[in-house]
Amino acid sequence: MPRRYELALVVADIISAHCRGTSARARFLQTCIGTEWDEAANMVEGMLAEPWRLVGYQEKRLREFRDLVLWSSPLAPNSGSPPHKDATIFPVDSHTSLPERLDPDQAR
User: Fold this and answer.
1) How many domains does one find in the chain?
2) Which has the least CB within 10 A, 28, 35, 59, 75?
3) What is the pLDDT along the chain (108 residues), one digit of tens a residue?
4) Distant-in-sequence, close-in-space partners of 86: CB < 8 Å, separation ≥ 6
């Protein structure tokens, strides 16, 4: 079974735990079965918007699913390839100019 489907089941359980009494779990799984991955990623983003409500492994699994879906999307840069393991994401500061954000050596 592809990894994204395995994680979809885990994410569905997380959604079910947080959205009791709703059809959110079923809607999420239907979205995944229909391969509407962008919509599934948006649903996960909604869960990640409130990380204080997540416990234990939940945030990690949601991020793992979202990243897997986004990086395997046909519209993603380097489609099918996750970010390089050594890739660094620098925090964005609104008081920093774009070149400083892109060149970490310049900020030192």
Assistant:
1) 1
2) 75
3) 788 889 999 999 999 998 899 999 999 999 999 989 999 999 999 999 998 999 989 999 999 999 999 887 655 444 444 444 433 343 444 444 444 444 445 444
4) none
Task: Count the alpha carbons within 13 Å of 31 in the hemisphere toward its beta carbon.
Answer: 21
Phi, psi of 35 (to 5 degrees): 55, 35
pTM: 0.65
For the residues of 12-62, what is the DSSP string, one character each? HHHHHHHSTTSSHHHHHHHHHHTT-HHHHHHHHHHHHT-GGG--TTHHHHH
Q: By residue range, what is the domain housing residue 76?
A: 1-108
Residue 66 · residue 10 · CB < 8 Å: no
